[in-house]
Design brief:
globular, Urease, subunit C, domain 1, TIM Barrel, 2 domains, alpha/beta, 3-stranded parallel β-sheet, 8-stranded mixed β-sheet
Length: 464
């Protein structure tokens, strides 16, 4: 009798475990999972996804115990979190809204599942896309956005909020909070040093993240004292690493000081600056690929670039401004941009080793010539490795550091239960060679898997 009871129970348990009723919506089988934090590799795994969330990760030997309505065979492919591009732009005014929107599939086609919009002049459209993507009504990466930039009396870009008088600080931040932005982006078109400091301090008091450009009349170290959370590009860090910074500031040289601070970079002073930045968790977005691209604009013919076919004619016209500037610089023998790019390559590894959090951002978008959405973050990671980071360290900047900046580590940064099902499936191991991030087999966004033919269809829909 007891034997029959246990036999009946065992048959019932086996039947329940092998039921055709799906406990998840999608199972990715035969996956090799990459742990970007540790560099560990775990083969023969399967990933169960319900909705937009990973429910479990199990060895393939448990395959008979689970079921799903949908399945994808990774065929041993390397599965890692989707890439984050932490510096992109959607801008150019109302006439370019559609062309900006058409950039969204480019990001997914290259495994970029999250972007941080760094400010522009089509905020209502960006906010609408953000909500549509969250609901699943629009195909594209998750968007974090600053909304309009904060600038001075004569903003460098249309759509910016002017912050001139002391009372403008509260008004500007009130406006951003009413828009429910994700962070505050400051710009240096004409923003004064005092208003820059005031914005940081007030944003800190409100619990808002701050990053962006800095007036060259200001000091990044003073900004850090007031609560600065990040800095875009490396001009402002470089300035702090020159012993001539104070005298150049007093002389009111602005960006005219760039050749001097590039030449007078002091490694010992830099170590001190990096230590302060690390102690205060100041995030740096180096944007090295765009620096390299712009430095060589006058000598490289981009007319046959494969991705140019996915860039609208209106956005392509915005490329001409930087191209003309590059040609003028070449004609006059001005090498300041190239010299700056060479210097930044020596800064990245010491910053990383000092503990400064580095985030990968490409600065792609209108006006930033021939820096293509999606592809450009892979090129940025290559720049990081060329500058001394290991492939694992570079991947960390595009998968883990962004979530930390936004306080979203519970949702992103690993292939693990409870994390968002935003995944990149690669044919080759990127921990061995960073260029393998381009060997894309499939992209999973919010639990929807798209293999290469699916991604090709996405791209064809936005080809001009």
């Amino acid at each position: 009798m007891r034997y029959l009871f246990f036999l009946t129970f065992a048959l019932f348990f086996l039947s329940a475990c092998t039921s055709s009723e799906p406990d998840v919506d999608l199972i990715i089988r035969n996956a090799t999972i990459l742990d970007i934090a540790s560099g560990d590799i775990t083969e023969d795994q399967m990933i169960g996804i319900a909705g937009d969330t990973i429910q479990w990760v199990r060895p393939m030997e448990d395959d008979g115990l689970v079921a799903s309505a949908n399945s994808f065979d990774a065929r041993g492919g390397f599965v890692m979190p989707g890439l984050w591009d932490m510096h992109v732009h959607f801008r150019g005014g109302d006439t370019l809204v559609r062309e900006n929107r058409n950039l969204l599939p480019l990001f997914l086609a290259y495994g970029v599942t999250t972007v941080r919009d760094a400010g522009g002049d089509i905020t209502p459209a960006v906010m609408d896309w953000k909500q549509q993507i969250t609901r699943g009504d629009l195909v594209g990466p998750t968007i974090f956005t600053s909304g309009p930039k904060l600038d001075g009396e004569r903003p460098g870009w249309p759509g910016s909020i002017r912050v001139v008088e002391p009372g403008d600080v509260d008004d500007a931040l009130d406006s951003l909070e009413s828009l429910d932005v994700d962070y505050v982006k400051m710009y240096d078109g004409s923003l004064s040093a005092q208003r820059y400091y005031d914005l940081i301090a007030e944003a800190e008091a409100r619990g808002l993240k701050t990053t962006g450009h800095m007036p060259m009349s200001a000091s990044i170290l003073e900004g850090i004292e007031r609560g600065l959370d990040g800095t875009e590009h490396l001009y402002y860090v470089l300035k702090a690493c020159s012993p001539f910074a104070d005298s150049l500031t007093a002389a009111g040289m602005g960006y005219g000081m760039l050749p001097i601070i590039t030449e007078t970079y002091d490694p010992e002073l830099a170590d001190s600056v990096y230590g302060i930045m690390a102690d205060h968790d100041v995030y740096v977005t180096p944007t090295m690929h765009i620096g390299e691209t712009l430095a060589r604009l006058a000598e490289v013919d981009h007319s046959d670039d494969e991705l140019l076919a996915y860039i609208g004619p209106g956005i392509q016209r915005t490329y001409q401004g930087r191209l003309r500037s590059a040609i003028r610089a070449a004609e006059t023998g001005n090498t300041s941009r190239a010299d700056f790019v060479a210097r930044t390559k020596t800064m990245l590894k010491p910053m990383y080793d000092a503990g400064v959090p580095i985030v990968a951002g490409s600065d792609c978008g209108p006006f930033n010539s021939f820096v293509y959405p999606g592809l450009s973050i892979h090129q940025e990671l290559q720049q990081f490795v060329d500058a001394g980071l290991s492939p694992r360290e570079a991947l960390e900047t595009a998968t883990r550091t962004g979530p930390v900046f936004f306080g979203r580590t519970d949702d992103y940064g690993a292939v693990a239960p409870g994390k968002m099902a935003d995944l990149l499936i690669l044919e080759r191991n990127p921990l061995e060679d960073i260029s393998n991030t381009r060997s894309i087999q499939a992209v999973v966004k919010a639990g929807i898997v798209r293999d290469q033919p699916d991604l090709d269809v996405l791209l064809q829909g936005v080809r001009y």
